[in-house]
Amino acid sequence: MDYRKSKSGPGSLLLIIMLPLFVLSMALLVAEQIFNVFAGRLYYIVLGWLNKHYYYREWLRFDLIDCESILELGCGAKSPLLHIGYGGKTDAIDIWQPYIERHNMAGDYRRCWQSDILDFEFPQKAYDAVVICDVMEHLQQERVSQVDLFGLMEKCARKKVIIFAPNGFIENDLVDEDPYQEHLSAWEPRDYKTRGYKVLGATGLRFLFGKASLPKRPQFMFYILGMLSQPLVYHFPKLAWHSYAVKELN
Q1: Cβ neighbours of residue 81 under 8 Å, at least 6 residues apart?
Q2: CB 109 within 8 A of CB 87
Q3: 10-50 and 219-228 helices cross at what angle (nearest 10)?
Q4: Can you list the positions of beta strands (E) in 167-225?
Q5: pTM score over 0.85
Q6: Which of 116-130, 176-190, 231-245 is predicted with the least confidence, judged by mean pLDDT?
Q7: Which stretches does DSSP call E strand in 55-125?
Q8: By 3-state DSSP, what share of the chain in percent is helix, strand and coil, each rounded to 5?
Q9: 39 and 125 both lie in a single domain
Q10: CATH value at residue 140
Q11: CB within 8 A of 113, min separation 6: which ones?
């Protein structure tokens, strides 16, 4: 039998159709994985360059430029205050001791020690500013109200209090084996506005992001959309993934 003259069956035709689709899907998967490795760094570089006026770290830098002493509550592992170079004029506390040891070994802060924010004894008018970034969602709202955390921060600061937190509730992954990384509460812009804070929207449209503050899939597309939506959410914080709230004190 001469196989060269045999006709292709349905299986061969299906293979011809599916093979390019398979190759394309694998290429997209590899491209996404490669992009994810560099996306975070690239995103912040591009965001800082293109949207300088809509980037919360730039707001933080500007709002703290006239502050000689800062108290940071819940510094974690990678505080934005360290990214903008303000560690040298900042005292910081965190509940997770490994972070404290890491910062003290690196000399990141003026002082850094372990403490639970909700049990912390706030000194009166001891710092120009009190800053709490990506921490409110880790605190139970009942306990925040019980100890009057907002009032304590405002009595401790001489000039201003700055809060940066996600809007709404979102699940969070365990990071650095830190048992305190769980999200326990949901906060909205109105929670700050009713207390006299000026609120800006930050980090893009909230529906673009999901668990652990990561963009939804395809991640590369939602990273870009998040960046492009910054000017919009700046004026409409209810639409934003994060609120940036500042209260100027007399």
Answers
A1: 60, 64, 70, 72, 75, 87, 90, 92, 131, 133
A2: yes
A3: 30
A4: 198-205
A5: no
A6: 176-190
A7: 70-73, 90-94, 111-114
A8: 50, 20, 30
A9: no
A10: 3.40.50.150
A11: 92, 93, 100
Q: Are strands 70-73 and 127-133 parallel, antiparallel or unpaired?
A: parallel
CA distance 180 to 65: 31
Residue pLDDT, tens place only, 67-97: 999 999 999 999 999 999 999 999 999 999 9
| Same domain assignment for residues 172 and 219 | yes
* Domain encompassing residue 40: 10-49
Give the tens place of pLDDT for each residue, 166-207: 999 988 776 667 788 888 999 999 999 999 999 999 999 998
Dmax over CA atoms of the chain, in Å, equals 97
Shared domain for 226 and 103, answered yes or no, is: yes
Pairing assessment for the beta strands 157-166 and 127-133 based on DSSP bridges = parallel
Residue type, 31: A
With residue 179 as reference, give the H or E element that holds it: none
